[in-house]
Amino acid sequence: MKTALLFPPQWYPSQPYLALPTLKAHLEAKGHEVDQFDFNIQCYEIFLSQEYLNFCVEIIRERLSRPAYTNEEQEVKAVYRDILSDNTFLDSVLNEVEDAKNVMRDEERFFQFETYKKAYTTLKVAMKLISYAHHPSRLDLDSFFMMGNPEENLSGILSATADKVRNPFIGMYQNHLIEKVDWSDYRLAGISIIHIGQVIPGLTLARLLRENFKHLHIVIGGSVFNRHADLLDNKQILFEKFFDSVIVSEGEKPLEELISHLKADQPLTTVPNLIYMRGQEVIHNPKSEALPYDQLVCPTFDQLPLEKYLMPYPVLPYMSSRGCYWGKCTFCTHSFIYDSYYRKENETRVAEEIDYLSKKYKTKYFTFSDEAISPNAFNRMSQALLKRDVEMRSLGMLKFESGDKETPELFEDIYKAGFLMLFFGLESANDRILSIIDKGCDQETEKSVLKNSSEAGIWNHLYLFFGFPTEEREEAEDTIQFTVENSEVGTGYIHSVGQSIFALEKDSAIFHNPEKFKIDRIIHDPDRDMAIVFDFEIKEGMPREEVMEVYKSFNSVIEDTFPSRNIWNYLSREHFLLYLDRFGKEEILNMAKTTVTP
Q: Once rounded to an integer, what is the mean pLDDT over residues 40-56?
């Protein structure tokens, strides 16, 4: 009995996601036959082709011939007429899309930034053309969005997964991907849904498999349905139309047990972490503790088409720990799937596995997917990599630590070991906000750490947000001022920034204790019965409109204080890693000064 593991669209096309390679390696170590399919990258290969774009043009022509009954439909048809009348635009996209993909895979042209930028723009425009064909849905190189957020309610899911106009994945699966697999070889199909943009594509795949291959047991895993676990008791129709079961938390042991039970034709009552339907009752089996790290297996990327990702070399994901060693940030839900159970790998074994993967897949490029690597673990890992003389180039996530843990010497070793880029969750630079977020640091610590990291040669990228409950305008300005002072026009300790607006997420500490954060009411909309992000009412702090104003004005601040945005605004983090390795931090900063952004 073979198992098929499936990763659905829509996700970044620059590297594999780690879930399938990790599960495949574990199951094979236990003697099970497993194949893995990255439908995400296969989907991009088809989307970004002249044949498919011609197909989209025909869809647009057909939709243009229909009557327009509303103002919105009339506006869309005006756009359609403009597209079809602009032969130069159409010809440029249709004729250049295949070469644009090849630029991303070609070592020489990838590193010619103007050539890269032109190819990247072509791919973005191609995705926009596909979006027009499936209006009002929007597709990009990392996301899928349907008007009305149908993934947030049961009726929306049922409708969207059957909507051939708005949902491009129905035709994609039926006409291209499903037929390439001999499903009679498999008894179980596991689909990993790890973010909101995958819910409709992932469940569309599950629905089609369920309708056409009755012998398959379809199981859903990943962080989204892990957070939906408490909502499934009255959602029997999901089990009837989409899947047989859901695995919550980490999947190695539960999936291994599920396969063994199916092989032996045993009842599913003792499969840990499993949610399934018996009769019309949704059953939640008891949970088991996740496996310790010494029982986990090095991931395998066999069967994945590494040459199809939009990269000149493979860039492989890797995790040296699970969960977050800090685990206190009041807004965060990232480690929810790990049940807040933090474990890490022995750093010597990390070096051994990176060395093994590097040689097996002929690459030195990795992205560490850890929620955050502690300074002590980073220190030991760097020493182990250097001792073994592993040639590695990577990026990772680090938390700001108070005290003397993040010293200049630590960052010098981190850089020597091959970590060229670090991501920091700054969130805020105001000490009061940092305190109620429970970041365990202050502004002085943030500046000191960024100084040490930058002077070691590392590129520092910050994540921050505005609108945390009770945040006042002057506190947001503290964050803006801190960013400006330490930008390229200031100390130069911060090299790039990603900003967002605070979102109240289900299962965060704030969600469970809103009154502690002065939230008067969390709005539970019955029409959003599967929502993960919630609106809320609060009397203290900036109103939502002012938060949005700060967010928009900060965009101008970034443009003025980070000229290197002319470079990194076009590059995914994996692409940027390769550019850092090829050119170095200082040369990229110099390149940006001569790059003109339209």
A: 97
